[in-house]
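Structure first, sequence second, as always.
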């Protein structure tokens, strides 16, 4: 195999709790992750020679060793002394620095694709152990689907697939640094923690209304405070018939859950006219994976 074409899916967090700040600077989290069918396209080719070359459709994204896709390739090339040139072509659709794990999804796809292309024989667990060195969301992106993530994000429990429904995903015109959000998060006796166990119970029952009732993200206390438009977009989604709406990850992307396709499409059209929103999509929940 000289070429592999893949999809790298975005995620939203149906629930996101931060339990504590650890000595090493990381945070212990408890998050319910869900892939949606909004994806980057990524193609890897091998050739004679050595080194990594990368191209992307977004001019502002780095294509040198600092791109997460290149970091993933470098990690495997160094460990397995891969004697080939690797070419990565990345077509981004997932908004960047938006709380949707776009970079992590790309890195996961590169790990998965190179493992196949160079017949490295690594198991999913072995790929995840390498992925977590590059980013806490990468193990989840390798597993995909509906997942409970604990620890720093690397302790994963596969959940029952989330029932089919519609997600309207709206990205405001600004980006948010994940580091800034975690550094400004206050965890004390006043912190209101999401009911993650309640979300898990509702997922087990296949009850989207039970999940929607409990959508909560502790990081909203930082990002939505800094950017009040986030609450405004959530309210707009609910006025349009969303069962509920939430900020994903560290933000600023907001998603609404709909049980009705028409309402989701109408909400999407309305948000595309809204000055607080730069891009908006309708997506479905999906099981992840990398097949093109
Ligand atoms: P998370 O939800 O995991 O916190 P995010 O969706 O908020 O991630 P990303 O889109 O992954 O954020 O981008 C975060 C930063 O990583 C950006 O500042 C970007 O320049 C850098 N980056 C490196 N490689 C990539 C990539 N392949 N795609 C997107 N961003 C990348």
């Amino acid at each position: 195999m000289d070429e592999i074409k893949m999809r790298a899916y975005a995620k939203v967090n149906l629930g996101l709790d931060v339990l504590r700040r650890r000595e090493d600077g990381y945070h212990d989290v408890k998050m319910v992750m869900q892939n949606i069918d909004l994806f980057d396209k990524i193609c890897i080719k091998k050739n004679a020679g050595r080194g990594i070359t990368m191209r992307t459709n977004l001019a502002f994204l780095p294509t040198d060793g600092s791109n997460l896709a290149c970091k993933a390739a470098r990690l495997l090339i160094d460990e397995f002394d891969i004697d080939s040139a690797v070419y990565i072509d990345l077509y981004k659709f997932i908004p960047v620095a938006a709380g949707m794990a776009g970079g992590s999804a790309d890195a996961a796809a590169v790990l998965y694709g190179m493992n196949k292309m160079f017949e490295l024989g690594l198991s999913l667990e072995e790929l995840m152990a390498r992925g977590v060195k590059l980013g806490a969301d990468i193990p989840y992106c390798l597993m995909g689907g509906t997942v409970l993530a604990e620890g720093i994000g690397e302790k994963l429990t596969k959940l029952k697939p989330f029932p089919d429904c519609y997600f309207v995903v709206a990205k405001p015109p600004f980006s948010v640094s994940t580091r800034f959000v975690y550094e400004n998060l206050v965890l004390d006796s006043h912190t209101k923690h999401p009911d993650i166990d309640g979300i898990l119970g509702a997922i087990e029952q296949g009850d989207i209304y039970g999940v929607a009732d409990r959508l909560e993200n502790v990081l909203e206390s930082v990002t939505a405070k800094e950017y009040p438009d986030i609450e405004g977009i959530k309210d707009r989604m609910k006025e349009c018939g969303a069962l509920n709406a939430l900020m994903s990850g560290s933000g600023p992307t907001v998603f609404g859950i709909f049980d009705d396709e028409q309402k989701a499409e109408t909400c999407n059209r309305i948000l595309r006219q809204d000055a607080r929103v730069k891009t908006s999509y309708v997506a479905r929940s999906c099981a992840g994976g990398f097949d093109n």
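Margin note: The pocket of adenosine-5'-triphosphate is lined by residues 61, 67-69, 96-104, 106, 137, 178, 249-250 (CB under 6 Å).
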